[in-house]
Amino acid sequence: MRTLIAFFLLTWLHIAANAQQKQILRGIVVAEHTALPLSGTTVKISGVIKTVTDSLGRFIIELTLPAAISFEHAGFKTRLIQLTGFDSSTMRIMLAEDISQLENVTVSTGYVTIPKERATGSFVQLSEKDLNLQPDRNILDRLRNITSGLSTDNASGRPPLTVRGLSTIMGPKDPLIVVDNFVYAGDLNSINPADVQSVSVLKDAAAASIWGARAGNGVIVITTKKAKLARPLSVSFNSNFSVQRKPDLFYAPQVSPADFIDLEQMLFTKGYYTAQENNAARPPLSPVVETLIAVRDGKMTQQAGLALIQSLRNIDVRKQYTDQVYTNQTLQQHFLSLTAGAQNFATFFSLGYDRRMSNLSALNERMTLRTDNTLRPSKDIELNFNLAYTTDRTSGGNAGFGSFRISAAQNLYPYTDLTAPLDLFRRTYTDTAGAGKLLDWKYYPLDEAKLNPATSRTNNLTAKLAAALTITKGLKLTGMVQQELQDNEALTLHALESYYTRTIINRFSQIDKSTGKVTYIVPKGAIRNRSQDKINALSTRLQLNYEKTFGDHTITLLTGGESRSAQITGEGSIAYGFNENNLTYTPVDNVNTYPTYITGAKQQIPAETNMSELNSRFVSFYANGAYTYKKKYTLSASARKDASNIFGLETNDKWKPLWSVGGAWKISAEPFFHSETIRTLKLRTTYGYSGNVDNSRSAVPVLSFTPNASQTGFPYAQVRQFANPSLRWEKVATFNAGLDITLKSADITIEYYRKKATDLYGNAPVDLTAGVGDRVVKNIADLATTGIDLTASLHIINRTNFNWNTNVLASYNRDKVLRNNIPNPAVQLFTNGGIGVSALEGRPVFGLYAYNFAGLDPTTGNPIGYVAGQPSQDYATLTGAKTTVYDLNYVGRVTPTMFGSLANEFAYKNFSLNIMIAYKAGYWFRKSTISYNALFAGGLGHSDYALRWQKPGDELTTTVPSLIYPTTAARDNFYASALPNMEKADNIRVSFIRLSYTNAFTKKVLPRDLQCFFHVSNPGWLWTKNKKGIDPDYISGFPEPTTFTIGIQLHY
Amino acid sequence: MFFSCIAIMALSACRKFLDVRSDASLAVPSNLSDAQALLDRSSIFNTVHPAMGEASADDYWLTDAAYAAISTDGYRNAYIWADELYFNQPSEWSNIYSAVYAANTALETLDKIAKTNSNLIAYNDVKGQALFHRARMFFITATMFAKAYDPLNANKEPGIPLRLTTDFNIVSTRGTVKQTYDRITSDIIESIPLLSVTPEHIMRPSRTSAYALAAKIFLAMGEYTKAGLYADSSLQLKSDLLDYNTFSTTATNSFAAYNKEVLFISFMPLITNLNPANNGIDTNLIALYATNDLRKLLFFKDNGNKRFSFKGSYNGNTQLFTGLTTDETLLIRAECAARAGNTNAAMNDLNKLLKTRWKTNTYVDMTAANASDALTKILIERRKELVMRDVRFSDLKRLNRESNFAVTIRRKLNGQMIELPPNSPKYALPIPAVVIQQSGMPQNER
């Protein structure tokens, strides 16, 4: 590695030494019609590249007079200036837009880079500048707000990222991610966003069909920075520092400690806790209940008991977490890159380092190293070698609010004092059990994270070799091989002092009552859990490109084949009695069962080893062609066949052909078109097919094996996939029509699309008696998604010193299920829990349904619904199997119908201010509310408790039902999904504000180019339609806290 | 040209390339060990015995407070024999039929495997296990969801759905009680000669346990001659009895799992109603035990206030044992002997059992005046012996058909008395509403 770096450095020094000092010319290059500075303009003297302009369009060159200087910039006419003399002031060079040359703007599909002008399909192209607007450390996060048609969602059970809505009901819903030509198998966090040159989002069939059966959800093509031939040495350095505030835990709608204590006292008098008190498994009771028991049993005076309970009323666990557990999150990002290119050799090298200390004190460090090298040994051969290495290390932090519970069924009490020991079994039992021979059985909340140090480390190495051979003019053969290796190791060391270790040891301890001797079935020592998984992916591609222009005709053809195999292997192990000093451990018996201390019930010691191996393999052949006539009319077509190792299909059935066609007509190039206002006008349309593959589905019965069954130790199998011979791949037909308009000071694109997805996986109903659950998957559903994407960039003010640009993204998207089967329309599947796929015919995939609500009973505070049109309080019927989703009110969709952003950029001299406003509209959510059953059984409260009906007359001001004991889950479920809890989700928020200062310097010692910025994301300026203080993007969890970032970028 | 050559080469290599399994822990069932592995999934065959039968029987009671504290509506409904038993709780039904599906998958896998001399014993054993499991699952279902077997009405009363293949497209129908029991008996009888006498593990069926299951099935049908013969066959292979004097009366759980009376292991998850922390055992039942009868001390913990909680599970913990045992088989043989008029044989079996249940040297052999006296005594001892083993509900159904043994069972709740009279249609529990809705099968009358 050292020799390699030395080699690169020598190369750069050689190039840098070529410059000779004569006279200095300073200048600025701007666009003629917008007056915007043109960064990246190549400045040549006598045909030799001397420099490129900085981000303000500036350049400095040394020359000897007279000189022939040329300025070249994509999309502009090259300007040649014969210079015989100049003064010391900055020279201003204006470049005229070259409409015929706009084709130099290219988009990458991952197979080929095509001129945007000749593209018939729908693309979003994001430049490095666009991607640098937001300082997120994950590249996908930087696409938010700036990608037309892309929508994000935080809710669980729904895809986090969708391109143009849905094209499947049950299949995978995430877009395909391609990095540098190949599908990316690793962790996207391994890609440093600073390494990314551009991102293309392929939205329609013509754009995406080249990716075939996995392109149904759109494709995101990420292109990293590359070495470029014939470029002088350039060095860049970026550094950012961010601070994110603690989350607002009081956003969680929790019952107040005082209310909860009153409730516990009431339940105690009703004997609710008697069963738990008698339970042989010794489940813990809350401090309040234990006090009440002690008072009842005469072990504590009434007075002392009341005083103790009174003191607990003032403790709020949310405040405890805020003060004791959470901190501000800090993030640093540093990045250095060097690039240089001679005529036949070019190299790029980058180094990145990020460090994040999360708000739960988990430390994450990421180091990225990339190099890209191009060698052109002869005119016809170009070789490219690319290597990227990322190492990412995270050490575990504290458990956040809500993630630690007393037990699976019991939430943390609202008055929990984190500084005091907690009981996870009854203290009256653990204090005496084992007569002091057992290990301490209490839980110390603030110590546990320190006693269970966890680290996870991911290394990713991706190497790519490509060779391109020009056979004859216009005919090029390209071969590529990419090997990706990823290794992830997660290690947790549970110290002997940790509760985790102590409770396992205690659970299996045996004490001889006569001698007091303790036998440890689980050795008394630390426990180490280790899991490792590895990804090994090999991709190869061979492709032939042909391009020829004769007269007015241009033909481009490409055809190729590729194969890909990805193997993911995993292994995990537990070592008991682990000694980290000498790496010794003690084997344990995982086969036989041993009596557990509390109940004597026999259990196995948690198992030792697990292994897994997953393989995915694809083979594809594809062809793509386009014909352009007079640079006005374009026709495109593509076809593709894919095969995969999907389970249980014969090879022949694994193949799936897909195709697409498209046409584009550049109206403004027609002789009859004359317009002063409209500079270009292009109409394009495409139609074609892509697909969705879900390799987890199978046509034959598939068994999944588990080693070491409880008690017998035999391996056992269960039927994972039921025989389902009629399964096929899903198919998505997409129609797209777009109009591109360029006005004098605006670029507008408007696109209409309609996706019709057929043969979708849907649930066919089966009765439980068949033994396969209540549904099986068949290709029985159809879905239509229609939408409009509008992009407008408006150059509102163009002055030398002041610019105001506005980018408007507006999307409209609606999906409608055309055909589906609802195997079980029973109402509870559509109301309780999260809002998952409902997919009723004629409705969206994610729909919200609610019970009609007739208010509260004025005498009891019971909620009233309707059964067969009549007011009813029969909750068993209201929520039972006899009521179906068809009896409910369809409220609306839970994903936005309209979304987009408004980005304003104000530039004054060297300063610019960006304000990003994002909006989502036309959708609904269901707010959470009180469930008395969950409150009694698991201590899960809700602030609506305080709003409950308590006396006649309250029904006029509240819809929250009264507290009753005993209660039924049905009554809670009914109210939770009744109309009063449905809210409109429309919202507008300021997503971020960014203030930056850019300057370029002339003195040699200083950087040529400097930018500093201050960025505030989620400043908290939010308008919501609901007036309950709920951020619809965060119905559960906590809103993303405000983050402040300062950063600097330097170029030499 | 060059390119098409590559393409052709690639195509031929494809088949091999694509034949790799997408998940190495998955396999298409094809051999004997696959079939055996399907039947070794104890989490559906052995550990999730449905609880609604025992929960509907009369061996336990709940206080008003304990009843109110039950958080699952379905369990509360079971206690009061409500019309809608399975509010949102069809899991017991689906557990049973997942087990049936697994047994059917094993049987269909066997159909594809050639029987050879070398695999014959293993082949037969696996087939026997699959048939045993299917018979047992159908029998448990029939006990809960069909009316008691009555030869006069068996052709008219609705039975339970008999799924005999893995084809989920076949619509479920209930058939008749006769068809149900015909299938159960033919499966279990077919399994007996196929199974090995001693299993590798007692979570697997064996010939001994198959005889015992056959005895239990014929007993429930009232076919006492056959029940007696099968019980005898089982006892000839294994008739070990525990000596209750060897157990501590103060232990949290009196017995160990895998004890020598156990022929086949099965147990039920502890639901709130049946959790000894919540309920009490019927005090009338407690009163039946004599002072020197160790079962009173080993089966029950006296919590004071007349609340006795059960601690005698043969599973070695609080989970209720519902498998097959020698003591139950012995009681079947005794009862069948009495019903056949063979008083001596009946009383011999009974005394043989009770001698091991009483304190050493305190038991005096019981005698019976005649066969019907013997039967009465045996039935009382049967109830005392098989507490909380999911036997009582089936016995209530069976014995209610004989007027001299019929009883009305009662619950006292919030000052009210709820009754379940003999032969009430409620003895056939309601099938989950969702199943009825999907399949269109008739629901049991309430």
Cα(first) to Cα(last) distance of chain A is 25 Å
How are strands sequenced across the largest beta sheet of chain B? 2-5
**Low-confidence parts of chain B, pLDDT < 50 over ≥5 residues?**
none
Work out the number of β strands of chain B: 11
Structural class of chain A: mainly beta
Taking the sheet with the most strands of chain B, its summary is:
2 strands, antiparallel
Proportion in helices of chain B:
40-55%
Radius of gyration of chain B: 24 Å
Number of helical elements of chain B: 18
User: Low-confidence parts of chain A lasting 5 or more residues at pLDDT below 50?
Assistant: 7-21
| C-alpha-based Rg of chain A, rounded | 33 Å
User: Overall mean pLDDT score of chain A?
Assistant: 87
Number of beta strands of chain A:
53
Oligomer: heterodimer
The overall average pLDDT of chain B, rounded, is 92
Helix content of chain A: 10-25%
Which protein chains are joined by the largest interface, and how many residues does each one contribute? A-B, 87 and 84 residues
Strand residue content of chain A: over 45%
* Alpha carbon gap, first and last residue of chain B: 79 Å
Structure, briefly:
The complex is a heterodimer of chains A (1052) and B (446). With 1052 residues, chain A is mostly beta strands. In chain A, the strands form 13 sheets. Chain A has a 22-stranded antiparallel barrel. A 5-stranded mixed sheet of chain A has the order 10-15-16-13-14. Chain A has a 4-stranded antiparallel sheet with strand order 3-2-5-6, with no helix packed on it.
